[in-house]
Q: What sequence folds into this?
């Protein structure tokens, strides 16, 4: 298990407004079509904190992807989608 | 069993409420909602038990158990199960928001509850995400139903029905659009309906909502808030930082009166506000709604948040809700103040069974804000969990800090530190340390506030208890008794039943030597009765009394009864209780085995006790007794050489004690050296060797008797046996005779020479057929089993004593003897005394060789 923070991409259905985005201060939001993509450096516990927040806010989680150093931008339909 | 597992806002709780409220419900409903972030499972289980008792009407009986610092979850699960089993006619058990139960032990406890439910109990559990319950067995048996998000989703037809029922006029196309946009998500639809009700243009609203890319909840909550009057919006935002709210708190946070009516109206409008009690004074917001409101508050009024938390903390302070006070103080960012509060209340939170909550509060401090006050908290946590070295290290830090603390803090910290050091010293068996730390007891409890005095009283009561226990170990028994009683009285005065029980539970041990076994037994039973009233009958807090009571049973030869009481302590001993208590338990088990002649099992127990003893510091008055029994048991188990080895390692003072002399005599006897045994026993018998109590002298007399017998001096042997009987008479002690293997010695004692025939008969009863009743069961049908009274009379049949003489021996009337004899004859199906003896021997109710 990697202890160091790694870049993550999290894709959520719908456009997140300012209120909901304030729940993810460590992540940078971008709107891609009907989705919101959050990216940022997260370690394990931060990642699970973000996932718990997504659950608590009733958001529709589409994809979580750990980005390797040579692939900083998300590719739709990546192998980790759920 | 039914599991409802679906994300936030899927309508789980609404479904439950609607289902529970439907007409024609025959099952009684037990509903427990898990509080947000429930760290201590004890609070959940107590709430569950309370709900079960209310629903089944059992609440009038036993008092609800109070929270304890050493919560025994398996016992609690058993208790809930047994109350459910007692409830006739079916119960529906609902656990709402199970995912909030964050304790790591919770899933195992719940699994056991849910897989062991009585047949007429239906359990319904709701959770946001699947929790790790091991329910395969139920699933395989077809007894598990699962309702998931897809099942809860509204269909288009249901969406239309909801709109119709809410009086919203919307076209079929509009309803379809709303359904499509919310994907049938219950919270989304309900929010939509709230905004649509009374909307001037519902079609327009749905069209705009549908055209927006915003997430459903965020869009609709913003819409709903916008449609509320400003004071309602303000109330919702400001009170969102509370887990639960009432009118008074809301007035305080908004600075306006009239909040309660707003909350009631919101609940009536089905606007994500629910009352928590039948009187509708406390409310909570739907979790999802509350979370979004909190975010909105943080975005729109960030500067006010610390002040709001401080106001909430102030209200909770007035209402004595310590954990909430600390939580809000932390949220306000007042870290040093939060650290001070936690340090001041760590002790009472532990006593209130909120150790996990306390640890969660401790974890909430950011690394940079680690205040030196927290060392005291960490020491309390470690001590409560038996990590003694870590506790000691934190106490050093706390002490260093206390030296530099402002004078008003200094005294308070020092009292707390002294009390913790006292507990630590006691747990380590370090008596000198206990007495040294107890000095603070001399100064009265003072302080600027009631809180100071309350804290001081808690600490004092615990200190008195620890001091009493330490003194009992040191044979400072009158002091021990006094301090334990003072501790119990103080605990009762300050409303700490846990501490009262803890003090009284130790009183039996402190009564040893000083009082009769009857008194010890009574004190143990009183303490146990008090513990049971609080629902702590098998908790660690009462274990000392259970063990001591079992011990008195063993001493009077009631081995089966003693064993039952010892078994009752087993669950308590599985939690960490420190070496002293487990040592007591091993000693009692060792004596039980020794009494039954199981020397190897006894040896295991005494060895375990010795090992625990080595974990305690300093020397103890009871050491010679423990070592003596260990050595004697080794010799009896055929290991006299090993006993000799241990004996050689003892210092002179210990070796000359009565208890060790007795052990040496046992070794001599095992080595076939009765003269040597008599030599060592001389000083015990003439009173020159120090002894712990008359038990040591009884043992010495019996060992001397055995030695005389081996040397062929029956007269001296009988005299020694008679002296032992005389000493054992008042407490009716049987164990020393059993442990020393004195059956032969007693049988050789001519009946007419003893003044203790009844006791002698009882003892022989136990020694022969260590369980006469068990043997009897195998040979006589249950209805024909002899009563204890009949057995006692039967024992005299082989003698040539007449019936009046037997009556005299047994101190009963001639009539009683005649009645017993008649039923003995009837049960054995014989007509006269000699055939009764023969039949009794065949049935092994009488030992074959015992004729006199």
A:
């Amino acid at each position: 298990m990697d202890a160091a923070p790694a870049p993550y991409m999290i894709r959520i259905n719908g456009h997140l407004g300012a209120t909901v985005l304030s729940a993810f201060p460590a992540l940078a939001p971008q709107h891609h079509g009907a989705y919101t993509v959050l990216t940022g450096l997260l370690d394990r516990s931060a990642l699970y904190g973000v996932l718990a927040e997504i659950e608590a806010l009733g958001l529709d989680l589409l994809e979580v992807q750990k980005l390797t150093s040579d692939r900083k931008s998300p590719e739709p339909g990546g192998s980790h989608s759920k | 069993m039914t599991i409802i597992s679906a994300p936030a806002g899927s309508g789980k709780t609404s479904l439950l409420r609607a289902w529970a409220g439907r007409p024609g419900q025959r099952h009684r409903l037990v509903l427990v909602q898990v509080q947000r972030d429930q760290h201590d499972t004890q609070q959940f289980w107590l709430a569950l038990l309370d709900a079960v008792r209310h629903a089944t009407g059992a609440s009038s009986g036993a008092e609800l158990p109070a929270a304890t610092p050493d919560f025994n979850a398996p016992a609690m699960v058993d208790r809930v199960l047994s109350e459910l089993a007692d409830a006739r006619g079916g119960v529906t058990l609902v656990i709402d928001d199970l995912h909030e139960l964050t304790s790591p032990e919770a899933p195992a406890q719940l699994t056991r509850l849910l897989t062991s439910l009585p047949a007429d109990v239906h359990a319904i559990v709701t959770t946001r995400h699947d929790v790790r319950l091991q329910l395969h067995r139920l699933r395989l048996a077809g007894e598990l139903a699962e309702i998931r998000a897809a099942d809860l989703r509204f269909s288009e037809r249901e969406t239309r029905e909801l709109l119709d029922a809410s009086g919203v006029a919307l076209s079929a196309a509009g309803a379809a659009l709303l359904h499509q946009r919310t994907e049938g998500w219950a919270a989304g639809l309900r929010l939509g309906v709230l905004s649509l009700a009374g909307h001037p243009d519902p079609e327009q609203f749905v069209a705009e909502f549908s055209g927006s890319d915003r997430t459903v909840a965020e869009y609709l909550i913003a819409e709903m808030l916008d449609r509320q009057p400003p004071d309602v919006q303000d109330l919702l935002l400001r009170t969102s930082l509370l887990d639960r709210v009432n009118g008074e708190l809301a007035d305080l946070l908004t600075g306006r009166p009239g909040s309660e009516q707003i909350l009631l109206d919101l609940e009536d409008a089905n606007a994500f506000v629910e009352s928590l009690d039948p009187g509708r004074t406390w409310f909570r917001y739907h979790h999802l709604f509350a979370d979004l409101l909190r975010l909105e508050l943080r975005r729109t009024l960030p500067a006010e948040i610390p002040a709001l938390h401080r106001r909430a903390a102030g209200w909770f302070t007035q209402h004595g809700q310590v954990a909430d006070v600390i939580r809000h103080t932390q949220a306000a960012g007042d870290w040093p103040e939060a650290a001070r509060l936690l340090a001041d209340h760590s002790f009472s939170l532990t006593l209130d069974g909120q150790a996990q909550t306390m640890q969660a509060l401790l974890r909430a401090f950011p690394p940079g804000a680690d205040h030196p006050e927290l060392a005291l908290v960490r020491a309390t946590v470690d001590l409560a969990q038996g990590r003694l070295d870590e506790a000691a290290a934190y106490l050093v830090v706390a002490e260093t800090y206390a030296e530099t603390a402002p004078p008003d803090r200094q005294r308070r910290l020092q009292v707390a530190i002294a009390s913790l050091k006292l507990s630590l010293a006691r747990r380590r068996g370090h008596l000198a340390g206990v007495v040294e730390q107890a000095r603070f007891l001399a100064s009265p409890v003072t302080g600027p506030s009631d809180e100071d005095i309350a804290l001081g009283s808690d600490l004092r009561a615990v200190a008195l208890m620890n001091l009493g226990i330490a003194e009992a170990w040191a044979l400072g028994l009158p002091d021990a008794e006094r301090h334990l009683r003072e501790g119990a009285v103080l605990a009762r005065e300050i409303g700490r039943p846990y501490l009262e029980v803890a003090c009284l539970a130790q009183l039996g041990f402190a009564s040893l030597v000083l009082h009769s076994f009857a008194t010890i037994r009574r004190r143990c039973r009183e303490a146990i009765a008090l513990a049971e009233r609080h629902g702590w009958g098998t908790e660690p807090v009462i274990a000392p009394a259970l063990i001591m009571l079992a011990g008195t049973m063993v001493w009077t030869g009631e081995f089966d009864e003693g064993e039952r009481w010892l078994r009752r302590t087993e669950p308590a001993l599985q939690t960490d209780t420190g070496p002293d208590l487990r040592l007591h338990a091993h000693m009692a088990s060792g004596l039980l085995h020794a009494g039954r002649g199981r020397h190897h099992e006894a040896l295991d127990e005494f060895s375990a006790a010795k090992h625990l003893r080595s974990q305690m510091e300093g020397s103890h008055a009871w050491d010679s007794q423990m070592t003596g029994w260990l050595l004697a048991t080794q010799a009896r188990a055929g290991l006299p050489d090993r006993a000799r080895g241990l004996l050689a390692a003892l210092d002179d003072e210990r070796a000359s004690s009565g208890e060790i002399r007795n052990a040496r005599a046992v070794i001599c006897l095992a080595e076939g050296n009765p003269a040597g045994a008599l030599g060592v026993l001389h000083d015990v018998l003439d009173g020159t060797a120090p002894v712990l109590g008359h038990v040591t002298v009884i043992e010495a007399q019996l060992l001397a008797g055995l030695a005389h017998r081996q040397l062929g001096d029956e007269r001296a042997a009988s005299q020694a046996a008679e002296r032992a009987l005389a000493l054992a008479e008042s407490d009716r002690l049987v164990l020393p005779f059993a442990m020393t293997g004195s059956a032969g010695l007693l049988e050789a004692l001519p009946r007419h020479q003893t003044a203790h025939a009844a006791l002698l008969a009882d003892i022989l009863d136990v020694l022969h057929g260590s369980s006469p009743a068990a043997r009897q069961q195998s040979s006589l049908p249950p209805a024909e089993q002899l009563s204890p009274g009949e057995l006692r009379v039967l024992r005299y049949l082989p003698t040539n004593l007449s019936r009046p003489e037997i009556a005299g021996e047994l101190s009963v009337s001639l009539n009683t003897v005649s009645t017993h004899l008649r039923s003995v004859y009837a049960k054995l199906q014989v007509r006269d005394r000699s055939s009764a003896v023969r039949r009794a021997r065949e049935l092994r109710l009488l030992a074959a060789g015992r004729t006199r």
